[in-house]
Specification:
binds fe (ii) ion; binds 2-oxoglutaric acid; 7 helices; 8-stranded mixed beta sheet
């Protein structure tokens, strides 16, 4: 394990401080890889409320969760220990619910206020993502709203998703991978954690030397309710002509004792399917986000051929 700096970047007074925030974001993205956002506009209470909604869903009996089944084509819905990781050769020890604005949602009868609260949470995540991505757009030499347009979640072809995740407590989890090492396929991920539910470990893309960072050095990133952990995905790496590297991360069960449950929430900015993706230096040929995704899924998941972050 290595000590690594994970800078905390404040989004306070974003419009007034945008130039300075842009400098901080690009410095962090180019050098440390991971960073956290504070003063981002989602209160700690709102994050806790969203986690409470997530827990209420995962506490439902399996037959009620299965009313929102996972669909391999859209990658939306509830999956239980179904994500096979090439890095570990085993299934991640977790269940998750993938959502898009227009996907199939759990009913409010099963989880009161689920849809409205979660939709509002997604909108706030979209606003924060737009702020960060507009800074990256400027630094990369794109128009300021380039990523906002490329990633507009109100458009029907937008692939952006929210993922509620639960790693169940288990007697036999010691030494297992709750989530195997990977980079996210999309553009930019906002990750919410809860106080005390550690397990996330990171390895910046710049410091990894193997295809899944196997054998590379990882650093634990302690869980805290409030700050948002941000990581760059493969799509933004391609879109920046590899200037901003995607970052490896994994979730490990504790080595001793019974690991308690862990909840996390990830918001994946994944672009609009029909948008043509190309970096400002044109290092790679132009390709639609949809084509790029299909290639990336085949590379990362081979025969399992399903979209997963
Ligand atoms: O639960 C976490 O902290 C990580 C989740 C994650 O990496 C993913 O879903 O891609
Ligand atoms: Fe991830």
């Amino acid at each position: 394990m290595a000590e690594r700096l994970v800078p905390a970047i404040s989004l306070k007074d974003f419009d007034k401080r945008k130039d300075y925030i842009t400098q901080q974001l690009i410095e962090a993205a180019e050098h440390t890889g991971f960073f956290t956002l504070v003063d981002h506009g989602i209160s700690k209470e709102d994050v806790e409320a969203q986690f409470a909604i997530s827990k209420a869903f995962f506490d439902l009996p399996a037959e009620l969760k299965a009313k929102t089944p996972h669909d391999n084509i859209s990658n939306n819905g509830w999956e239980y220990k179904a994500q096979l990781r090439p890095s570990t050769g085993t299934y991640d020890q977790k269940e998750s619910l993938w959502l898009q604005r227009k996907s199939h949602w759990p009913s409010d009868k099963d989880v009161p206020h689920f849809r409205q609260s979660t939709t509002e949470f997604m909108s706030k995540c979209a606003e924060i993502s737009d702020q960060v991505l507009s800074c990256f757009a400027i630094a990369l030499g794109f128009e300021e709203d380039y990523f906002k347009i490329a990633n507009d979640p109100s458009q029907p072809d937008c692939l952006t998703q929210l993922r509620l995740i639960h790693y169940p407590a288990s007697e036999d989890a010691v030494g297992t991978w709750r989530a195997g090492s990977h980079t996210d396929i999309g553009c930019l991920t906002l990750l919410f954690q809860r106080d005390g539910e550690d397990g996330l470990e990171i390895c910046p893309g710049r410091e990894s030397h193997t295809s899944f960072a196997i054998g590379d050095t990882f650093t634990p990133l302690p869980a805290e309710t409030g700050p948002i952990v941000v990581n760059i995905g493969d799509m933004l790496m391609a879109w920046s002509d590899d200037r901003l590297k995607s970052n490896f991360h994994r979730v490990r069960a504790k080595d001793v004792g019974k690991p308690s449950s862990r909840y996390s929430i990830a918001y994946f900015n994944q672009g609009r399917r029909d948008f043509v993706l190309q970096g400002p230096l044109k290092k790679y040929p132009p390709m639609t986000v949809g084509e790029w995704f299909a290639q990336s899924v085949a590379r990362n998941f081979g025969s399992q051929a399903k979209v997963a972050a």
